[in-house]
Amino acid sequence: MPDQSDEITPQYYEDVPLEDDYLMDVPEIAMMEDAVLEMGSDARIVSEMAFRKRERKLEGDVLIVGAGITGMQAALDVADKGYRVILIDKSATIGGNMVKLDKTFPTNDCSICTSAPKMVEVSRHPNIKLLTYAEISSLEGEAGKFTAHIYRKSKYVDPEKCTGCDDCVPVCPVDIINEFDEKLAKRKAIYIEFPQAVPIVYTIDYDACVGCGSCERVCEPGAISFLEKSEDIEVKIGSVIIATGFELFEPLEMRREYGYGKYPNVITAMQLERLLSSFGPTEGKIKRPSDGQAPKSIAWIQCVGSRSKQLGFPYCSRVCCMYATKEAAIAKESDPDTEITIFYMDLRAYGKDFQQYYDKAKEIGVNYIRSRPSSVYQNDDKSIAIRYMDTHTREVTESSVDLLVLSTAIMPSKENKRLAEILGITIDENGFFQSESILTDPIESTRKGVYLAGCNQGPKDIPDSVAMGSGAAAKAMEAIIDREQTIPEPPPKQKDVSGEKPRIGVFVCHCGKNIHGYLDTVEVSDYVGEMPNVVYSTDVMFACSEDTQKDLRERIKEQNLNRVIVAACSPITHGGLFEDTLIEAGLNKYLFEFANIRQHCSWVHSHDYKAATQKAKDLVRMAVTKSNLLTPLTQETVGVTPSTLIIGGGLAGMRAAIALANMNIQSYIVEKKPKLGGTLATLHTLFPSDVKSSDIIDPVIEKVKNSEYITVFAGSEVETLEGFIGNFKASVKIPGGQEDIEFGTVIIASGFNEVDMTGLFGYGDNPNIITQSELEKQLIDDKLPKTDKVVMINCAGAMDKERPYCCRIGCGVSIKNAKLIKEANPNADIYILYRDIRVFGKEEEEYFADVIENKHVKIIRYSEDEPPIVEQAEDGSITIKVKDQVYGEEFALPADLLVLTAQTEGSPTNNKLMELFKIPAGAGNFFIEAHVKIKPLDFATDGVYFCGSAHFPKNLADTIAQAEGAASRAAIPILKGTLILEGITALVDQDKCVGCGICVESCAFSAIELIDGKAKVNDALCKGCGLCTATCRSGAIQQKGFNDHQILSIIKSSLYEVF
Amino acid sequence: MTEISKTDSEWEPKIIGFLCNWCSYTGADLAGTSRLQYPPNIRIIKVMCSGRVNPQFILKAFQEGADGVLVSGCHPGDCHYIEGNYHAKRKLTLTTDLMEFMGVDPKRFQVSWVSASEGKKFAEVVIKFTAQIKELGPQNKLTGGDV
What we know:
The complex is a heterodimer.
Chain A: H1 12-15, H2 20-23, H3 33-39, H4 43-50, E1 54-59, E2 62-65, H5 69-80, E3 85-89, E4 103-104, E5 109-110, H6 111-124, E6 128-132, E7 134-142, E8 145-152, H7 168-171, E9 176-177, E10 186-187, E11 190-191, E12 203-204, H8 214-218, E13 231-237, E14 239-242, E15 247-248, H9 255-258, E16 266-268, H10 269-276, E17 297-304, H11 320-334, E18 339-344, H12 354-363, E19 367-370, E20 375-378, E21 384-390, E22 395-401, E23 403-408, E24 410-411, H13 416-423, E25 450-452, H14 462-477, E26 504-509, H15 513-516, H16 521-529, E27 534-540, H17 546-558, E28 563-568, H18 571-584, E29 592-596, H19 598-602, H20 609-629, E30 637-639, E31 643-647, H21 651-662, E32 666-671, H22 693-706, E33 710-714, E34 717-724, E35 727-734, E36 737-743, E37 745-748, E38 752-754, E39 769-771, H23 772-780, E40 789-796, H24 810-824, E41 829-834, H25 844-854, E42 858-861, E43 869-872, E44 878-883, E45 890-895, E46 897-902, E47 904-906, H26 910-917, E48 944-946, H27 956-976, E49 978-980, E50 986-988, H28 998-1002, E51 1008-1011, E52 1014-1017, ...
Parallel strand pairs in A: 1-13, 2-3, 2-14, 3-6, 14-25, 16-23, 17-18, 17-23, 18-19, 26-27, 26-28, 28-29, 31-32, 31-37, 32-33, 37-48, 39-46, 40-41, 40-46, 41-42
Antiparallel strand pairs in A: 4-5, 7-8, 8-13, 9-10, 11-12, 15-24, 20-21, 21-22, 30-49, 34-35, 35-36, 38-47, 43-44, 44-45, 50-53, 51-52
Helix pairs in contact in A: 5-6, 5-14, 11-12, 14-27, 16-20, 17-18, 20-30, 21-22, 21-27
Chain B: E1 15-20, H1 24-33, E2 42-47, H2 55-63, E3 68-73, H3 84-102, E4 109-113, H4 119-136
Parallel strand pairs in B: 1-2, 1-3, 3-4
Helix pairs in contact in B: 1-4
């Protein structure tokens, strides 16, 4: 593995003791300077000279600082709209923290698998200029005309020449701590952080390099360049997005309590992620650091550094409960005999499908103990003894585990203070960047034209960060929307090769010794040269080098080639490069074929020269077979109607419309109620700000009404819909008539409802038993009933068999309303009965602590098995019986007023929307996104997006970020103007089609429909997976580029010589 | 290439692997990047999605002389095309039954989920499957038949 210098063996850990000096940030230098002198190399001296800066200038539209998942999403969203992005990251690769994770909750998707395609997309996007290993050093000017300076450190490796072969790594004599592997492994001074790094260019760590020149001597393409200079780049841009992410709390200062840095078998959760990762130091095996053995018992301690003013930070880190649950479940599933315990304070499974994920972990045997362990110590066998109070027995107990994992806090980057000074923005009391207003503009920083996205503004999980990245992209448009767009130049006209006999050119790559060292590329090239229709074949040193690309273009012309095969590395990493070369040479890119003789041959059969050569010949022969059958494919284009339909006139829908208007895009809001405002208009004040909700919603309604870009249809509903992305038509039933509208994209913002509580906790029979939303109304009307004794029951109708999910907002609402009642009536005696207190957003934890400490609201935790019982006497007086889960006591609480914090569900109109727009909904009738982590605002159906509580109930800041994000997504097709469709789509032979409709059912993208008894594929929606082709029983529907004839021919060709 | 006789003592099995573009093909790439060694018997055919694999391909492969066929796609839930791998799973389970019916040892056919990060798993699957096919010996049952 390129990023690891050593074989991982159990002894390995003994080399790297987790001691204080080891954890210092100073690289170990394994070779002494005098040793370098003995070797007679002057490389170091040369590089010292090269350290002087080179200067250059760049122009763009938006500068994005930080290329983690948030920055990448923002970059793609801006670039796809036709504006130029300069994306910088201080690391040598993009990807941020997400790529370090093994899997992501609550779907256990492989993290690198979902981020890597995005990384490649970013690196290949014509409108994105990527600068890695670079930092911002100044920002002057104002929105619309900023000038920034970027300092880009030299990597001392020429990105044009580096082939990513890894030859330089084994010869490097320096071993230093690998920060990417969270200090659990070592790396060399020349390195890439992980195998999927983008760009795949090695970097020489200047501080660690001893300048021996070994790498330079073995680098065949001559990519090592000690003379490469660092650069000072002046960039001119209109807006800036800051997406610099977070750091994790390293609990060294809690060494006394939890032994991190003192005992080897105490690790952080991120270290465990690296152990779980298949490209981590143990290749996915959990091993305990002291002896490399698989732990038989593992425990997690939650909130290490979070929710504590004394030791760490006062806020909740938002993600730890779920990642610990994920890690625990993975550990349990991989070895069911492992004992797994999670020590937690409140289990905050607040998001969509989180509670179900948590329930499943409990089912498979993850043991959750509600307790905050006071201390841990190490036993003689290096296992860790944890001392805690058992909440059931009320006794101090001890239990020992082989491995202890600390779920450490997300904390602001230590760089934030310095960065804030450079950027001219402010940081909050915790060190995160301050939003202009967390209530109305969470994405805007305190400097106009500078926007915030992701965790640099507060802890967030991945989808919230991605949504915010899209939102920032929409905001960044405001200052530059009138600039001319940069649409990539159309490719030169394609040569018409239809009807021509194939003339195939084959280029077999040596990749230095990486292929040629393990198999005979000359023999492969000679062999393939004999095949029919192969008119040119050659072996080349580096197929991807600029001079070979030039040669390839020339050969295409000279030999009149109409098919090209490159036998080299992988189409995944290099396919796009060669396709572009074909396009430049005037050939259709679908006439290119790749034979992977490096990753799939020379590198995996390195000890069998003969067999590897034979296999390479077979692989190239298969490619020739396919190449002979390739046909040019056209990518159709469609125009886009430049407006958006928004379903729902609540906060989410209106903020999306405003964001679109700021991009000069027309929108139609269709609201079923007679008035705009949605749920927010029915609330009194907001959690955790106590701001009147009318102060928030009224200006938004005003703005919508006054916008020339927004048309509102209140009291209206969409009746019929036809069309697809780019060109939809709907008929809208409006009061007293009907309106037909046309639009290019759709945003669904249909919101949520409280579940009907009738029959639960005595609701319906007694006027003094009400829901939180009814209480809000009484608060607005200032008609509170008697409130001397108030009880609130949280999770009413939630997290049970029928509705297994958490409502996400109820805890906050109950705390806020308790405070309001207490302020109106200081004598009020208020109890909140809860299951977990789930306050996780910015300033929420602090608000909660304040209400408990200063307003004397009492909270009682009840168990899901023993919910409170409401008893009503003849005279209507109410008593609530509840058993305190923490202290085991039973209470009978008399109440003047009982408030139920009711479960939520998707809007009842969602069923109709599902049908109309062909979009799915899940638990609670909330809509299901295209991908829970990286496509939180998109549906699988192109051109339809969603935001706000239609996705899942959420607070103000998250709703606004999502609404602006959805506006950004919906604006992309519109600002592009025309859509270039997928070339590899399905095609129906109308004569063979019997109209059975099986393909229609199998298509997940609603791309096929039956018209007059025959299947028809909509190219605008087809993603080219080929599922329909495999499903069709008549062979009528074929996937272009992968049709039955092509694949069956390759099957033959893979088994014997077909020519 | 000289046609290897199936009775030859030097017999090496021929294995075809259908890999999906997004997970398993990338996983096989990672096996290469990580320099994990596995036997050279497998020939990889890339498809966009494991759901594209028509049972006809499997039968055709055996008919044309393959000794083993491997299909690999994204893990359940991870499909790039949302649910293509579920369709593959259902279809290929039936294919296994069909093979049994035709008298071909179902052990010659395997479906494995390999993600883009599981280079090691890919190598392990290929090592194990190749050994299994070697043990079963040449496949003659369907060779020359008409599919």
